[in-house]
Amino acid sequence: MNLPPYPDFPTIASDTITLRQIEPTDIGDIIEISFYDALQATTLYLAAEMQAKINKDYLNGESIHWGIADNATDKIIGTCGYYRGFENASGELGCVLLPQYYGKGYMTQAMALAIRFGFETMNLERIWAETTIDNAGAIKLLERLNFIKTEIAIDSVTYGLKKP
Fold first, then answer.
1. pLDDT digit string (tens) for 71-121?
2. How far apart are CA 99 and CA 101, in angstroms?
3. How confident is the model at residue 2 (pLDDT cuts 50, 70, 90)?
4. Could you tell me which of 46, 98, 41 has the C-alpha nearest to residue 75?
5. Selection from 57, 133, 68 nearest residue 91 by Cα
6. pLDDT score, position 85
7. SS3 label, residue 8
């Protein structure tokens, strides 16, 4: 498998967005969507600390975390990446978007780019995602991207996508 870290941090682009490395100057824009181990940042300091942990995980080959940059402004409007997994050629894909960008197709594009990267560059055979059972937007997104529901728990649902 070809897993992180890579000689150069992968940057992937479409016409409207670019998945790129999050820089220290980006942290202030994404405090409200900065998470690590299911904890949310509440200050710039905590968001920077969380990003440092995410960067360390990448350097340890345990994850790859992209900022989703709007090509018109280069502003980070969300994040996506592979945060857990890699056992058995499998990876967990997660995402979060600033609320003012919901419903504009940004996350569909970002996830499609990340999925292609997972299958083609990382050589994953299966990608999975988990969300809360009441997160209708995430469920709709995953189903739009052809993920299939594989498990339902009391408060969460898991979806999977196999390599074509």
1. 999 999 999 999 877 888 999 999 999 999 999 999 999 999 999 999 999
2. 5
3. confident
4. 98
5. 57
6. 77
7. coil
- Token representation of residue 32: 């409200």
CA pair distance 47, 35, nearest whole angstrom: 8
Q: Is residue 136 part of a domain?
A: no
What gap in Å lies between CA 8 and CA 22, rounded to an integer?
14
Is there a domain that residue 7 lies in?
no
Predicted TM-score (pTM) of this structure: 0.94
Q: At which residue do the structure tokens 């999977």 appear?
A: 160
In a domain, 150, yes or no: no
Number of domains the chain is built from: 1
- Alpha-carbon Rg for the chain, nearest whole angstrom, is 15
pLDDT, tens digit (0-9, with 9 covering 90-100), for 11-33: 999 999 999 999 999 999 999 99
Q: 62 lies in which domain range?
A: 12-125
CA dist list (Å): 77 to 107, 124, 129, 148, 149:
10, 26, 20, 27, 27
Structural domain includes residue 75: yes
User: How high is the pLDDT of residue 87?
Assistant: 84
Secondary structure (3-state) at 116: helix
Q: Is the peptide bond before 10 cis (omega within 30 degrees of 0)?
A: no
Average pLDDT over residues 115-141: 96
**CATH number reported for the structural domain that contains residue 23 in this entry:** 3.40.630.30
Rounded CA-CA distance 16/111 in Å is 13
